[in-house]
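ok so for the tutorial part 2 we go from a plain amino acid sequence to predicted structure tokens. step 1 is just haveing the sequence, like this:
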Amino acid sequence: MNMKDARFHQPPILTNANGEPRKVGFELEYAGLTLVKSAAIVMKKVGGRIDVINPYHIKIRDTEYGTFTLVLDFQFLVESGLEKWLHTIGLDQALEKETVEAIERFIADLSETVVPYEISTSPLPLERIGIIESVKEELRKHGAMGTKADPLYAFGFHINPEAARITVENILNTLRAFFLLYDYLVERIKPDMTRRLTPYIDPFDREYVELVLDPSYDPTMIGLIDDYLEYNPTRNRALDLLPLFAWIDVDRVMAQMEGEKIAARPTYHYRLPNSRVDEAEWCTCEAWNSWVLVERLANDEEALKKLANECLQYLDSPLAFFKKEAWIDRVRQWVEKS
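step 2 — the prediction. this is what the tokens look like for a chain of 338 residues:
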């Protein structure tokens, strides 16, 4: 089935460095449905078969879109289940199986008040990414709840676009484009206040932004990774580059991020958009299209240089805070012409 949807804009580069069609994965967080019901809803849309890994982790395998993974997004439960953890400390020998299962259920029930369920896709070819909108709509129709449904719901819709080229120039230009567009994207997407108050989508520090936007900044790949790790030793950025850098040099990244669970993959991890799964008027294409803007600017060399110079002047102004709206208007001018 071809899920090409004209509402999802095309990025400027459609193939990867090997000439193969680029792919993108999605992660949608929500509440209001059990994992079992969610899996049944999704399977009716995409086919496949259900594989229950544990009560908090289900996979839908053998669909024409790859594998869909559904989890209670609570790392402790998802990664191993409480029973495995109890085994590592020997308590599974001291407690009855029913007691272990009761503890698991208690933690899961408690977690569900603030921790979302998450459905993630396999990497999808660009012409088939419309399936995420179909899945979102099915979940919405059956009562899934998004970011705005509760003040505690800091739920996100994450996008993992495959890097078009894994080169210093391409990654650096993408990062620069994101910095230049950031204030405009925040105004456009309007990340929920709860999400902005949590560390999940922390903005980049101004010092690092100025370093990257400086036209004299010309790092090697090792230098680019090292600088990123020095200023951003965390997964909690609105644009997380750790998966991509781990793909390039996993030992270098993990030496600084020991103990963190980082899935090395040749993708950016765009975390800014809200999950608005319960809103009929919201299309997942809106979040995707905001990312496409980043790629368009990254591939517009003239505009990138010009806006970077203007942004540095804006940031250097002692009254920068009061000029924020003017800067957003300037970026909007580029967006409307692009």
